[in-house]
Amino acid sequence: MNERETWATRAGFILAAVGSAVGLGNIWQFPFKTAQFGGASFLIVYVIAALGIGLPAILAEFVIGRRSNLNTISAFEKLGHKNWRFVGALGLFTGFWILSYYSVVGGWVLRYIGGSLTGAYFGAPAKYFGQISAGMDALALHAVFMALVVVIVAAGIEDGIEKATKLMVPSIIVILGALAIFAFTLPGASEGYAYFLSPDFDALFANLGDIVPFAVGQAFFSLSLGMGAMITYASYIDGDQSLFGDGITIVFLNSFVGILAGLVVLPLLFAQGIDPNTSGAGAVFISVAGAFANIPGGQAIGLIFFLVVLIAALSSAISLLEVVVSWAIDNYDVTRPQMAILLGGVIFLLGVPSALDTAWLGWFDTLAYKFFLPVGVLGILIFVAWVYGAPALDEVMKGSGLGEGVGLTWLWLARTLVIVAVVATLVLGFQTLFLGESPAIIPPI
Ligand code: PFF
Fold first, then answer.
1. Where do transmembrane segments lie in this chain (predicted)?
2. pTM surpassing 0.85?
3. Where are the domains of the chain?
């Protein structure tokens, strides 16, 4: 069996976890949905969801990971609840699932880095996106992105993930900050700020039924919850640092980067008179890309923008692969590089349909968002708060320096309100999965 690695420093763990959290979700979903759902008023809902639901859930994952020092499946066994291994197994499966299409999108980003250099997407961004997003090119770049992920994960926790994310996360913040300052100088930028941040309580209350589950779902996806990434990362912690402190830092930095991304993309779009009323792939790869065509220095700005998107996507993708690699090397007598290559290969294959047809990609994403992740979060919460209980409280308090009341509040929040919120999110998500006009549950053929 392999000797288990640990993070070299506490900051290393925090940055790796922030790297996992900060990803495509922050850049192509968060700013646009915030603007659409009522700007500053949506931010309030999101912050409540992230702190009131995301934070208790991330702490639950930390507890399992640090207490067991094992991967997301074996952890349940070590904590004395072998029957709950299925929750870890679901997480592992979700890791495969999400990375398979996340990597295809990573491939698009690579393509746009090249496209910025040559100006390839400047003329007709929608047409360009249509050409490159599916087919043999997309497949090849999906392979390249997966290879980058494999290289970092193969290098190990301290030498691979920790070193990489120590460089990547500060770079994301600095570069996005610089781009936000640049966007500020563009004429028309102020309309972008108004659209992004002015509170619209009417829009908020009129769509509350859509907004609340979206805010909760976004908090899960964005904080990488429900599939064992945070369990796995916390399993490499060596020491009694405050999990509360780490969790709050991660939630704060993750939201901060989402807001920063909004301060880049929305002024950019408004400066060009482009309608931002979209989110997802179209928003970033068509609207934002289109804006670069007309701004001074657009090629360079486009290059820097897509570079930062690439770094964010990579630092998230490595946490997805680490979930499965960690399980394999904890349980079998195989080396980390061997497993990284093998499992990376399997994930590449699973991503082939998404690389060949964006309808598959959308279907994979919808199922992950609305089904696998909330079910995973629910399983983890029920386990930690109700089944494991007292030792979980003990673990969360360790090194926190806080009064017992704080831990008890966490435990009872997790036992009640948070579980209710997750169930509600699941039910609402189910309605659109199975009962909508074109239910997403039917895979494309
Ligand atoms: N948090 C990532 C994002 O916002 O793009 C996505 C993600 C990464 C989800 C890792 C889940 C995960 F385990």
1. 12-31, 43-65, 86-108, 128-155, 167-189, 211-236, 248-271, 277-295, 302-329, 341-364, 371-390, 410-435
2. yes
3. 10-435
